[in-house]
Amino acid sequence: MSEFVVKQLPYDLSSQAGLALIGKYLKRINLNALVDPAFAVRAGIANSDILKSYLGLLCLGKNDFDAIEAQRFDAFFARALHLRAVPSSPTLRQRLDAHASNWFELAERINAAVLNVKIAGKPIAFGLLPCGYLPLDVDTFAIAYSGTAKEHVGRTYAGVDAYCPLAAYLGTQSFCLELALRPGIQHSACETEYNIERVLPLAARVSAGTANGAGAPLLFRADSGFDSAKLMCAIDQQAQQLKRAVAFIIK
After folding, report:
1. Residue range of the domain that includes 65
2. Are residues 155 and 240 in the same domain?
3. What strand order describes the sheet that includes 143-144?
4. Low-confidence ranges of the chain (pLDDT < 70)
5. Residue 81 and residue 104: Cα distance in Å, rounded?
6. What is the Cβ-side half-sphere exposure of residue 139, based on CA atoms within 13 angstroms?
7. Strand, coil or helix: what is 86?
């Protein structure tokens, strides 16, 4: 019978290796330049490091601020995300609370920058349908929080106490353009015209320079929860403003 050989490695292993790819994308779009000049700090941790730290947590499937404490002394976490410093839980919470409204539009700018990244010199291929349309799929889904007292958790269409976010995905490869947190009791079509005001221009902008998306008509697809004349009018108005053909299929 063979024997086991146990030895100590000269390097550390990490279960979070995927963060290295996230860090490369953030470096590629120069997130520091997008954030720090507009939201400079006199002292302390830069706001770009705040955003990258919390994004790192989200990529690990964690959304509570206290989860950052486990990463403060993890050399790989800081190195992978190119962080100059990892914030404490109170700093992360206070900074995000202070800048929440100001950073709302910043999320869209960062998303647009990521989707405009060229790979091997070529723009992202979002993927057209065989009919030549570029699909934009919109839907809501439930994030269950039963048994909690979190703000805006309510009874959803799925029959559970939850939030009901709205998601928008572009192309046959389903690149995420929008992921808007919503109260659980909010109807799918309620106020969705405001999401459309962001999503359709973003879809038109990021697909403009692609080989198979430039000039292609957009196709808004949604289920019967979005069967609203107000929403259809909003789609038509956006199409006219963008000077881009936008069709829709709503069940």
Report:
1. 19-115
2. yes
3. 143-144, 161-163, 154-155
4. 1-2, 209-214
5. 22
6. 15
7. coil
